[in-house]
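Same chain as my last thread, 397 residues:
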Amino acid sequence: MSAAGRFRYVPSTRRATTVLPSTLDDAALEEILASVRRRFSLKPKVAIAGFGKAGKSSLFNAIYGEAVAAVSMKTDQTTEAQTLERFGIDFTDTPGMGTGRFSFEQVAETGVFDGQHVVLHVLNGVSAISAEDERLHAAIERSKARRITLVNKADLLEERERAEFAESACERLGLGRQEVLFVSAKRGDNLPELVQRIAELLPEAMQDAFIGQQIANLQLKERRVRALVYAKAAVSAGVALAPLPGADIFFITPIQLAMVAAVGHFHGVEVDRTRALELLATMGAGVGFRESARQLVKLIPGYGSVVSAGIAFAGTVALGEAANAWFKSRMKLDPAVVREVFKDTAERARREFAERGEASSPSLVRKAEALRAGFEKGELSREELERLLVIAEDGED
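reply #2:
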């Protein structure tokens, strides 16, 4: 069921009559944007481990689109540090591992892999599995990290050769057949599946950061953006269904702003005040966030400035889809096209919300009502209320 199906459609004639500031307070705006930045700046720690010629650097480049030279555990620390800083990736190219330079005993003692969330054990598909591969596999298994075993260079293997290699991996490494993933960094074979597996093994709080960074599974990125947009639309509809102090738009706008910023981060664009305003200007809205929200509502055919659950839902979905198209194009999409995306999506989302109105779930309404009660009792400040609405459905505490 889509997010729209969680709410009962309640047409409303309420209008936002409260006079609102024309801009979002600078401090509140920065806190919203900073919160999104923190979420996407988390560093998922993924080690790429394997011996020479397995294609680890090529694999990294295929996942992230970055040209990174091969890095060893003991050399080229500058490149390694830069890689870790941006992506949380630890290249473990192992020319000295298993020798006196860096024995497997030292690997166990130092806990090389213990600090990683996921370790990709990369095997060279055109070379037989060696005793060193077995020992590296055992070292990873003894660590606290989650493991994915890859066979790279699958593009060079016939089907029969793949079957033989898989049988050898199962026998020598003690793996189940489903644990052996054949990939080709050069041709892209199974890279979307690899990205999906990595994301599933990462802590939930770090999944969005990884999904936003990678370029090998764009469908996963699109699905996550769509889930985000509909979750924020559901929260916005919940606000409209449980009237809060002041005009609904006052609280819905920060929710939408956080959504727009997150959509930008999924496409590698850090959304600051200037970029957020640029998007609104592209859509023909004014220069103030709250006033822009009023104007954007008017873009929904036939609704003027009516504030209702359906409008809140449709407007949020439309803004999210428009932002997705805008940032995906690296802010080069024709403004007229962006406006059409908004209008067409708003009408579709409005119909969807109305058609699924009988399948109601009041969970977010109750959440909004509880927040409102806390505000009215003086337990929450307006700023705290706004923040809690912004992070609703983000999985944050």
